[in-house]
Amino acid sequence: MWASISWEPPACPRGPHASPAASPAASPASSASLGDLRETDSLLGSEKRRGRWTSYWRRADAGRRLGRRHLQVALLSLGLSLAYSCRVNLSVCIVEMTNMNSTSGFPAYDWNQSQTGLILSAFFWGYVVTQVPAGMLAQRYGPKQFLMVGVVGCSLLTILTPLVAAYGGWRLMCALRVCEGLFQGMIYPSSHTMLGRWIPPLERGRASAFVYSGTSLGTVSTMAGVGLLASSSWGWPSGFHLPGALGLVWGVAWLWLAADSPAACPAISEHEREYIESALGASSSGDKILRVPWRSIATSLPFFALLVTHLCQNFGHWILLTQMPNFMKNVLHFDVKHNGLNSALPYLCLLLSSFVVGYLAQVVNERKILSMTASRKVFNSMAHWGAGTALMVLAFTHVTSTQAVALLTVTVALESGTLAGFLVNHVDLSPNFGGMMMGVTNSIANTMGIIAPIFVSQIVGDANTSTQEELENGWSIVFMIAACVYFSGNLLFVLAGSAQVQPWNSPSPAESKKHQVSSAGAIS
């Protein structure tokens, strides 16, 4: 009897008011519909997963290919090269400009050691003024226009230099150099802002090494080229005309090809833009206006270590860059042609070693051989402690001219370590305020450019009235002091430096909103 009774368990209702007829088990059509839905959901999930993986691999592929960010890096490097050409050409040209025994037929000026020291240092009187304002303005309004004004403005003044020297004397030359410094003060902070907006963190070491190797390229080409031009039929005025004209050509290319950020670049591919923005993540605000956390920055120990390291670096850097032709003329007795070539040799080696450092930094960071903080400290120690050791040898041993040039070459070439050391550390600590921070440290550090020529002239004395022994002893003291400064600055960086993004990089939402409202009111 029980076998003749067919029984099915009741379907579980989906809700309190569901009826058996509405249940999936109520009809074959419902079961088929549920199967279709499940298959559709499965397909959709598969498509979503495939889409996520496709997007990931496209971004990864964009990271491996050359793109618009690499074009920005190349333009930045070339711009810095030309800016340095306009900055350092006077260091070589002034040797011939003040050579009263010259038979070249071009004007020579009776400027003494103190006057030439003032002319060389005057650049930095203007240079330190615009650093911080340029960093803040570049962060707020975009770095492109400030880089343009900096390079083009300085190039125009460089072209006018021979005319000013002829009709204005050394005082007007000082004024011209101050104005050149005002223009060039915009360049470094704006370059840092560009790197912070365009370059993913893992690429930053190599990119910054390439960008700032432009300074070495400009120094090499100028010291060697200007030395040859000054000894040719074109004379020393061509050492100003050529770099200035090239700077104007660069300005046209920059205006056409550069962009403030990936979001502002119409020619960038969508994949590359996504790759950059996802790599930067929340650490960079892009084009947003943020309140500068001045108090937090000023009380930050890693920032203080960075500032002191930058100060010590520039003390040695500007002594070598502005006074090496003087040393080679008065102590090593090279003529203007060989002076320029031998002064350029250390910076040629610096240029070549910059690419090696950039590659090594990329390998170390990508493979995580060292933490980012340890990597920055190792490369910076190679630069400062290595350079300090070479200067100590030069100061305390009697060397031939060839050995002296070799030691100076080692000193300058090791400076490439700073490209993956303290020099990119501003953006490590704060991608949002890296450009502004570079403005602060660069402004303070480049007071050494004012002090260095005066410092050397006071210790070494006037070459026209000093004996050879007095000149050699004076330069030994200069090299010893520079070495001690290198050692002490890097020691602080090793003990207190960091490459971690600091908490004050991203202000609280309330502060940012308040600042943006007040900024909008101020603009309107």
Automatic annotation (TrEMBL):
Pfam families named among the record's database cross-references: MFS_1 (PF07690)
Domain Major facilitator superfamily (MFS) profile: residue ranges: 72-501
Residue ranges with Low complexity bias: 18-33
Membrane topology according to the record: Multi-pass membrane protein
Annotated compartments: Membrane
Alphabetized UniProt keyword annotations: Ion transport, Membrane, Sodium, Sodium transport, Symport, Transmembrane, Transmembrane helix, Transport
Gene Ontology molecular function: symporter activity
Protein name stated in the entry: Putative inorganic phosphate cotransporter
Source lineage: Eukaryota, Metazoa, Ecdysozoa, Arthropoda, Hexapoda
Gene name for this UniProt entry: LOC113203518
